[in-house]
Design goal:
This protein is mostly helical and about 170 residues long. About 65% of the residues lie in helices and about 0% in strands.
Amino acid sequence: MWRRWSFSRQLKLFYIRFIRIRGAPEEIAEGMALGIFIGMTPTMGAQILIAVFFAALLRKNKIAAALGVFITNPVTAPLIYGLQYELGRYLLGWKRLRLPTELSWEIIRNLSWGVIVPLCVGSLIFAVVFGLLAYFLTLKAIPVVKRYKISRWPRRRRRIGPSDNGA
């Protein structure tokens, strides 16, 4: 049924679900910060599971944590992970890797560590900075957003014709 709805209606329904998240603004902000923290780590594919697990473990808002993970999606991930790699490489003082001309297990092992270590260092910095930023922005935004009233979506009136006799 949702496929028949327009994109604007789906966006509006998503917004309604977001502002109806139950909990104190602090709980929602902590869940969102946790989700964005996890979303900044290079764990693509398992981020929602990790965020919901830690939100349940730490008793934070699980829905907000799951929503926060979507900071990295297929559109934003290459940019975010690229910036994290470059930041980690810069902080470690490492040179940028070049693709090898021939492949062997030794070269692949060295190449993978040359990418994973700077990516993890950069992602830790990004996660802390953006997690804190998300906490404070969400904490300020939740009371404002919850005050908005959303008008009902106009519904089509169903015509009762000769074939609809109400039986």
